[in-house]
TrEMBL record:
Protein name: Type I-E CRISPR-associated protein Cse1/CasA
InterPro entries: CRISPR-assoc_prot_Cse1
Organism: Nocardiopsis gilva YIM 90087
Pfam families in the record: CRISPR_Cse1 (PF09481)
Region (Disordered), start-end ranges: 517-585
Compositional bias of kind Polar residues: 565-579
CDD domains, A to Z: Cse1_I-E
Signal peptide: none
Amino acid sequence: MDRHHVSDDHFSFNLVDQVWLPYVDTGGGTGTASLRQVLIDSPAIKDLTVDTPTQYPAILRVLLAVLHRSMGTAHGKHHGSYPRDKRGWKKHYASGPPATQINEYLDTWRDRFDLFGIEAPFLQVSDLRSTNGDRKPSSLLIPYAAAGNNAPIFSAHRDASPEALTPAQATRWLIHAHAWDTAGIKTGAARDTRAKNGKTTGNRTGLLGNLGVIVPTGDNLWETLMFNLLVLDDALSPRHDVPVWEHDSPLTANWQERSSRGLLDLYTWPGRRIRLFPEQVDGEVRVREVLVCAGDRLRTDEPLHGKEPHTAWYSTAKKAQSATSSAKAPLLPYRPITHEPGQQLWRGLGGILGRGRDGTQRDQGLPLPKALEQVGIFQRAIGRKLVRVHASGIAYGLQNAVIDETYADVLPLPVALFEVEGEQELAKLAIAAVTDTGNAAWALGRLAADIAFASGADEDTQKAREPQAKNRLYAALDQPFRAWVAGLQDESRIEDYRADWHRTARQAAWKIASDLIGQAPPSAMRSRTRKEKPKGQKGEPMPMNLALAEREFSRRLRYRLPSAYPQQDSSPEQLPSDDQNGDAD
């Protein structure tokens, strides 16, 4: 392959008019658009088709920053970020993309969107270099590609043969790196006054790496943008809050730990100092080498729940009560909820809806994610019954310096669940159904463990059977729950909805229970004795065999799913006291 280096200033790739955003349109066709085109034509674009789910929110937030600023542009002048009231939001939602304002804004800042710009390349430092002059392979930007210590053993890529990224690919991974890069040691930049021995330590993950990202989406990209385009005020986005490309001075190697200026600052947070090195490969511009150095760090004492719109939150009140004065950092009132790898999104519905696991915490001030809250506020203007909630996240490994797993799920939810006024009975019902399902899974797990004990299995085997049975039930109920929750529309049918779900959960639980019972060995028929240890009581010898295990499961399930049983048979026998404390996972 003919490959020769050319000086960086011979290259240009301007994101405003050159294509880098792959999409599928509302007719099912595919294409790639420029920044200008994707915003102006967003009603005809169904959605972006990115390289990995975690690229989606990072790129969307860049589009949102451009749109917020475009709406405040008129006749070549900037008037701040918009919309700033509900009326303005409704007007824009109904009228579609403001093409004239988008064009004016992008033309004004066009030079800051050149990926290989000489003075201020997009989201980069123009003269960034390492202390020893070395560069890194482009695979450093890609979380699933081999690069240094973050090399997955299954990857065929090696640092010695770095990927040749197109400018479009490099742009998408550049944005992704700022948002999701791993923590740990980074290459020291030559002009970084904090770099020591050619490196910087103490780096944190990218800003989105701390979140369990959730993004409401519509039937086309314009709807998605507007669902996430918040109504701004001075607390959320003061006048000095601008995207990073509007800063008076381009990025330099030096970085700082600071508070965010507002929403647009968060959307375009320069979490790393990066430089792409373009070269010519067979007549085409490619990026094989990069530098990724330390970038700005968000102050750990800054509460983000009033700004960050794309995550759920949990209260730290209980931790605050037990916190000691020796704590290294102040405990914030709310912390973001991160996604659990392998767990369906609906199992965390309480957090998504700002209510906690039991569905009551919104009354205690737990915030609903701002993007979902906005959908609830404008549900009449939106005029739809369902929105799809896209969830994405990364589970980091050792000291957050490696990526263990990525998370992605999409859950259609009724807009009615995001109501901010009234009793929100449908939201309470949906969360109660998740809790009831968890309790049914707990009962099934106990059955599996009881059968293992009765069969003479060792303690480790008993413990292993319990989560296996639970996961079988969650898997069996995954699609049924998604269909059921999407149908929650009428508050007058609360008890009908509850009974429908309890019957569905009971049927699935009993199907799995029947398999477990049928597969039990003959030895499970004989009684074995163990000590039960309910809270506050001394352990008493309790017999256990297959028949007793089935009977206990039947009682527990009836207690957990009462609406699945006829009314005259809905009062279960009193359960043993340890069963009273069974909770959802």
